[in-house]
Amino acid sequence: FQGSRAEPYDEDWCAKEFSPAASLFSSNSRYDIDNIVAVLQCLEEPLRPQYGGGIVTNAELNQGLNGWEPFGQSKVEARRSKSGDAYIVARRRRQQHDSFSQKIYLEKDLLYTFSAWFQVSNGSADVAAVFKTPTGSKHTGWVTAKAGCWSMLKGGLTVDASGPAVLYFESNDTAVDILADSISFQPFTQEEWRSHQDQSIEKARKSKVKLQAMDAQGNALANATVSIVQKNSNFPIGVAINKNILSNTAYQNWFTSRFKVTAFEDEMKWYSTEYSQGREDYSVPDAMLQLTRSNGISVRGHNVFWDDPQRQPKWVQSLSTDELRTAAEARINSIMKRYSGQLIAWDVVNENIHHSFFESELGEKASIDFYHQANNLDGNNSLLFLNEYNTLEIESDGASSPAKYLAKINDIQSAGQLPLAIGLQGHFDTPNLAYMRSAIDQLAAAKLPIWLTELDVSNSPDLQARYLDQTIREVHGHPAVNGIVIWSAWRPTGCYKMCLTDNDFRNLPTGDVVDNIIKEFSLNKLSGTTDANGYLEASLFHGEYEVTVSHPKMGDSSVLQSFKVVSTGFSEQTLNVKVFA
Question: How much is the pTM?
Answer without folding.
Answer: 0.90
